[in-house]
Amino acid sequence: MQLSLLTQLRQQNPVVLNISNFVTVQDVANGLNAIGASPIMSEEVAEAEALVQMSGAVALNLGAFTQQQLTQIRQTGKLANQYHKPLIVDPVAIGAVAYRRTIATQLLQDFQVDIIRGNAGEIAALADVTWQAKGIDAGAGDGDLVAIAQAAAQKQHCVVILSGPTDVITDGQRVVQIQNGTPLFQLHVGSGDMLSSIVAAFAAVSAGDYFTAAQTACLVFASAGERVAAQLSQERPGTFAAQLIDELHLITTEAVAQIARYTVGKDE
Ligand SMILES: Nc1ncnc2c1ncn2[C@@H]1O[C@H](COP(=O)(O)OP(=O)(O)O)[C@@H](O)[C@H]1O
Ligand SMILES: Cc1ncsc1CCOP(=O)(O)O
Ligand SMILES: [Mg+2]
What is the complex's ipTM, to 2 decimals? Predict the structure, then answer.
């Protein structure tokens, strides 16, 4: 864990290129902006090379792609590899939709991803583990989440974040588990997408240590949500979403350190 990465992120204000889905694009842009990164979104393959070159990291969200956008996604992923930019993929709903799973599998062969961030249903699909994913949500299953995340990381040769009540972060061998968070995240569509792009922002300032970038991003994001939830007397999804943006902007490394609850290793 390296909370100083949050300070570096705010000092460096890295450009993060996002291919977003149309549902959560604004959450992602504002979440990145609030925490101290500089978001840019694009839907045009003709500008992909210029945008990748100027970016500190690239986040590809597979939430609602069309055939046309697939060309852009594939090209942007390849360019990120070519220009050695950290590449993050969010494989939205690949556990629930066979078509998405097929496409994601192909894409992950077309370029080498550095970090994959998904919920249990999505990461189980990558690891070929049976799971009852439900739409964009994690769904239900009884597999060992740490073993599933490790299997996915080993298969894709990258860092994997399996997010949920506990976030599991692994490079296939090493494991960190973060217990911070709030169930209110699940009441706001876009929480996961925001996290994936914030992971990209941390990766941009991590000098290639993607395992540390991934766990620090997860801890900061989950802590921000937890601090907001602690101030709410009722479940208020709208208020939570607005205040999450505020908190991403205001949260300090000291505040995160004060509430951080995580374990290093496989046992919680
Ligand atoms: N029940 C929960 N308790 C605490 N934190 C949660 C819970 N569910 C999700 N989170 C947090 O919500 C954020 C988004 O993760 P997740 O809900 O798994 O993504 P997605 O929206 O893609 O399904 C993460 O920071 C995760 O830690
Ligand atoms: C509802 C929906 N449909 C396609 S993408 C998307 C948003 C998914 O957002 P998240 O995974 O962050 O909840
Ligand atoms: Mg998601």
Answer: 0.98
